[in-house]
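Researcher: Next entry in the queue.
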Amino acid sequence: MKIATPDLVTNSYFPALAAEELGLYRAEGLDAHVELLPSLDAVNALRDGAVDFVAGGAHTTLLAFPGWKGAKLVVTLSQGTPWLLVLRADIPARRGDVAAVRGLRIGAAPGPDRAFLRLLHESGVDPVRDRGAVDGFWANALGSETAVRRGVGKIIVDVRRGDGPPDAGRYTFAGLSTTEALIAREPERVAAAVRAIVRAQAALRRDPARATEVGRRRFPPASAEIIAAVVERDLPFYDPAIGEQAVSVMNGFARSIGLLAAPVAYEDTVATRFRGLWRVTEP
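Model: Structure for this entry, 283 residues:
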């Protein structure tokens, strides 16, 4: 079983990786491997049958499955919009002040940049592309923590914790998606993957230090040594449930950026047959 992810060194999609490295897929009878693919390549590979799942931003599924036709979300990896705004440590900016980016040059990878641009729009800020050195970046919490610890950056906006416009923290979330074809053909394999993710989240909540074990196997050394601290801080977000309000806001965000043409119902976005597996279980 192949699981594609657009970002391997991250806390956001980490439960999918932890389920592999902690042996939880194997315990569920699955031979699963998480591999790195760029965002668009990942969802296209899912559409083409080259991978079985994608662990990524929930809304990105729409890049290859317009209108949610042919794909479904099966479990949440991490709740909330997973990217933070970090500015250079010497820039005078207060926590939560999105407008502090005016006149600055901010780095954002393709995919996450859609959420950042929407955040700016809802905050009344017109994006400005200046030449010169990057003044900040929009990235996952692990990258943000790295900049803070090195003393080169400071976190200005963490929308998951209430910074920014009201719905910014729910533009998207880290989710595991698969095809309707796989769900119909092998529902028990999909269920086994969901159970492994839920067990991984439970293991991390019980002992966040296990994240270091995972990180040392798959991360660069510097990232491996801080992942446990980031995971421990973000434990409240490792909730497997896919809420109806979360899907409603996410689909609304997708419509606002042109990824979705019309409203789509919760049951047409989420494989609700697996909802009963989202409860906490022991590894």
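Model: The first helix runs from residue 14 to 21.
Researcher: Noted, moving on.
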